[in-house]
Amino acid sequence: MIELEEFEEGNPVNKEREKFNRRNEAILYHEDPVGAVFIGDSITAYWDIDSYFRHTEGKRLINRGVSDDYSMYCRRRFEADALQLNPELIILSVGVNNTKEASDSEKAADIIQQVVSDIRAMVEESKNRGINIVITSVTSINRPHTDLQGIRQDAIIEINRRLIELATEENIHFLNYYDVMTIDDKLNPELTIDGLHPHVKGYDKMAEVLTKQIKSIKLQ
């Protein structure tokens, strides 16, 4: 079993490390069949997967989302929290937090490259292990009170354009949450409380997109 230690002090993903180690241990010890692992940031972490979905063969659906996760941190924990569980499918959704650092266009360009590079690496790792993987769009934001709304939104649009290209190159599914949740280049305010995280109506939209493309996962 791969049991990660906490990352450097202050890393936001540390808060879930011990819990995930113990839960991964239990899955491996009991040889639980895993239908899918959802891995990513708070948008994944806050999603009550069991309330929404069931696997068609009764296999487990595992949530390994961590609030404040960035693509490079997700990449570092990808082996421990996704691959070693040997799921049929991994649903990877990460990148919106990276864009918080986009203070100008030059920095945004670096962030776009980082996110796409990290996601590409995780896709390749999955395929090398014979595990199917799905990537999702980065969802839009609606925080006009911040000075970086425009820069962040432009970065998200470009990340998604490149992820669509990546999915086409790798012949994998791309779950486009962005289009069904966005109005005028902003997250639809009827789908969120804080302009970043979906509430139940936002997750309803995401669930519809997912189950239309992933036939092994059904709505409850």
From TrEMBL:
Record-annotated SGNH hydrolase-type esterase domain positions: 38-204
Cited InterPro entries: Ester_Hydrolysis_Enzymes, SGNH_hydro, SGNH_hydro_sf
Any one GO molecular function term: phosphatidylcholine lysophospholipase activity
N-terminal signal peptide: none
Membrane spanning residue stretches: none
Record's protein name: SGNH hydrolase-type esterase domain-containing protein
